């Protein structure tokens, strides 16, 4: 990866589900070779360890969604943590399949996708942290078209829902006790032009994508976030294999330390993180500074941080949020418990060993 000549960041002085066949094949491969990972460094030493090369599977293209990872690499935090290099592999791709196969050390996904693979395939995976404390799903409408600001506003409306989001939509209606017959659902793809043209009243969307498009187009977006309306669950989660948690624990913790530092810098200066994204990591993607900056700001102020992260540190998932996430999974027909889905022990050790990282704000 070509780096910008001068990083806008300074080091701190104190410091989309569908995994099916790929997951099943990867799971078979993993279960047939359950020995320790030969490429990992020895763990357990208090000295600066050398972990060699590592890799992280991103769930999407290299846009501001992963601004913390970009900052961690650009500012040298991965190198500082003991890595010769960390390959940030762009998606769209299944984080779970990559981790199960052993092709990547860490995957970025969400509680729905990882929970599904664990519950249905028996995948030996755990979520060990979450960047987004709130998932970014929303029912997007426009002030002049639909104007869906509350659950009551959904009655009689026409909503565009993608096939991949149908189960989540069904769960949304179920937990809010909304009669499906009171709403007309139109199967759609991902381009929200039908909403922008007034062909539908609402759109199953992301706060960090289509809602920003509407805002930048001057269309006065109105959001009904799922996280605030019955379906809270963590997203941008870090998924690791149970084998790595047991046998490459120090390597995973080192990755988390670097990630925490990168995301702390990014949320403290989202404009600089957006610029790094547009100018360096996503320079060939046609990204715009305006949209990436808005996404960076939304993440920094509403999705990544919370009272829990302020008290306990970035990526931590409180017991309450774990239970809420599992309840959302159950509403979507996925039966799993918190102990099967989450393992917060690595982050607990990271913050015990590096208490200065808890205070991530300026």
From TrEMBL:
Residues 1-35 form the signal peptide. It comes from the Bacteria. InterPro entries: NMT1/THI5 (IPR027939), SsuA/THI5 (IPR015168). Residues 63-273 form the SsuA/THI5-like domain. Pathway: Cofactor biosynthesis; thiamine diphosphate biosynthesis. Gene3D superfamilies: Periplasmic binding protein-like II. GO terms for molecular function: metal ion binding; transferase activity. GO terms for biological process: thiamine biosynthetic process. Keywords: Iron, Metal-binding, Pyridoxal phosphate, Signal, Thiamine biosynthesis, Transferase. Belongs to the NMT1/THI5 family. Homodimer. Responsible for the formation of the pyrimidine heterocycle in the thiamine biosynthesis pathway. Catalyzes the formation of hydroxymethylpyrimidine phosphate (HMP-P) from histidine and pyridoxal phosphate (PLP). The protein uses PLP and the active site histidine to form HMP-P, generating an inactive enzyme. The enzyme can only undergo a single turnover, which suggests it is a suicide enzyme. This is Thiamine pyrimidine synthase. It comes from Cryobacterium zongtaii.
